[in-house]
Specification:
Elements (H helix, E strand, L loop, with lengths): L11 H6 L4 H13 L1 H40 L6 H28 L21 E5 L5 H10 L2 E5 L6 E6 L7 H9 L5 E6 L1
Antiparallel strand pairs: 1-3, 1-4, 2-3
Helix pairs in contact: 2-3
């Protein structure tokens, strides 16, 4: 705004917000002293500036107020209406009943001693041995099933990439595994290899 040719009335907005340099400010003040119309224009620009600042302040406050009210609403405890609670009672009763039934079943089915189960943890003291078996390629499924049933064995893993299966004696059977390996390897038509792990 250093142009000396600038009309003072065009400089009024900068005069109102105080951003004119000294020469321009003096030029505007001289113009204001010379005319009543100039003073009215100054009042108008001042009112517009005040209104804009007030409006900006209100918008800032209203946004802050709105955010604060939203936060307070989220912090208020959630209360369920009595009707909602009454509608949920059957579901809550069913959930409690289901928990009770599950508890009874777990207590009834839970083994009282280690020997009552077909399973045991890996950290258990006694681990039942496993036999590695490779069946003959020409052995049929029926032959393999008959052999397993005859010696009370069950497949627990396999086949591996090299055709290796793992079998164990069915629970409750005390077995000499070395003798069992000797017996099943005698059946050359079905067993190619067997060894205790």
């Amino acid at each position: 705004m250093t142009d000396n040719q600038t009309e003072p009335e065009l400089l009024l907005p900068w005069y109102v917000n105080g951003t004119l340099d000294d020469n321009e400010r003096r030029q505007v003040e001289a113009w204001l002293k010379s005319s009543k119309q100039a003073q009215k224009e100054l009042e108008l620009v001042q009112r517009i500036s005040d209104e804009l600042q007030e409006q900006a302040h209100r918008q800032q406050d209203s946004a802050g107020e709105l955010g604060w009210r939203r936060l307070q609403k989220q912090l208020e405890p959630v209360t369920l209406e009595r009707k909602t609670v009454l509608r949920l009672r059957p579901a809550m009763a069913a959930a409690v009943m289901l928990i009770c039934v599950q508890s009874v079943l777990l207590l009834y089915l839970w083994p009282s001693e280690q020997g009552d189960t077909d399973w045991q943890t890996l950290s258990a003291g006694h681990v039942q041995p496993v036999i590695q078996v490779i069946f003959q390629p020409q052995a049929t499924e029926q032959q393999i099933r008959t052999l397993l049933q005859t010696y009370h064995l069950q497949l627990i893993d396999g086949p591996s990439a090299v055709g290796l299966y793992h079998v164990k004696a069915m629970s409750g059977k005390t077995t000499d595994y070395n003798e069992l390996v000797r017996l099943i390897t005698g059946n050359k038509a079905v067993i190619r290899h067997a060894a205790v792990e």
